[in-house]
Design brief:
Blueprint lengths: L6 E6 L5 H12 L2 E2 L3 E2 L14 E2 L2 H9 L3 E7 L2 E6 H9 L4 E4 L2 H10 L4 E6 L3 H11 L4 H17 L5 E4 L3 H16 L6 H12 L2
Parallel strand pairs: 1-7, 1-8, 2-7, 3-4, 8-9
Antiparallel strand pairs: 3-6, 5-6
Helix pairs in contact: 1-7
Bound molecules: guanosine-5'-monophosphate.
Guanosine-5'-monophosphate binds next to strand 5, strand 6 and helix 4.
């Protein structure tokens, strides 16, 4: 059966631990991650081409003009975008591809890929979220406050997602997401080719 891969949109509050969950999904379950482009400055330890493709505003705007993105959005003063070619090639090759993107980008992708899974990751509580953001130690107090403010707006937007997964224990959170993807693969409308083959199989017996 020639089933193409699934596109998995993962969003979540800044500090919910999305990055760690995504790493688990890649390492333990073989998912591919689409590396986004951004105009944000690299954080300590981030590697160009691995964490993000770090771009200047000019370079980013040039890519927009060239139609190089599936979607792009501005988040707390910087551009972020999903490169088109990598994602389309991998889906075509039957791979499951994760996009770790914010809400506007997620809604935009869903319009273009109606079969994409929209999953929102949260921390167990707002207190825990704030503690995780502060504990990360990579952002200034001002940026933390902006991100908390953005998160408070995202509470309204998260109702537009199909699944909400609480990231209390990373392993469990990754396992939950993998279960959602498996369920998607088993959906009737993902199996139409298989049904057709089965029908032909019976006709030939
Ligand atoms: P951070 O600066 O913490 O790495 O990311 C900030 C926000 O941008 C996160 O919510 C992250 O999911 C989102 N983001 C990362 N890459 C993309 C992208 O390609 N497109 C969109 N729309 N959002 C992205």
């Amino acid at each position: 059966m020639n089933q193409k891969g699934s596109l998995i949109i993962l969003s979540g509050f800044s500090g919910a631990g999305k990055g760690t969950v995504v790493k688990k999904l890649v390492k333990d379950y073989g998912y591919l991650i689409s590396v986004s482009a951004t105009t944000r400055k690299p954080r300590e330890g981030e590697v160009d081409g691995v964490s993000y493709f770090f771009k200047t505003v000019d370079e980013f705007e040039h890519l927009i003009e060239e139609d190089g993105f599936i979607e792009y959005a501005q988040y707390v003063g910087n551009y972020y975008g999903t490169p088109k070619k990598y994602v389309e090639d991998q889906l075509e090759a039957g791979k499951n591809v994760i996009l770790e993107i914010e809400v506007q980008g997620a809604l935009n992708v869903k319009k273009q890929y109606p079969d994409a899974l929209m999953i929102f990751i949260t921390a167990p509580s707002v207190e825990e979220l704030k503690a995780r953001l502060e504990g990360r130690g990579t952002e200034s107090q001002e940026v933390i406050e902006e991100r908390m403010k953005r998160a408070s707006e995202e509470v309204e937007e998260m109702t537009q997602y199909e699944y909400i997964v609480v990231n209390d224990i990373v392993e469990q959170c990754a396992a939950d997401i993998n279960s959602i993807v498996i369920a998607k693969h088993c959906e009737l409308n993902q199996k139409l080719d298989f049904i057709e083959e089965t029908r032909k199989g019976f006709a030939n017996i």
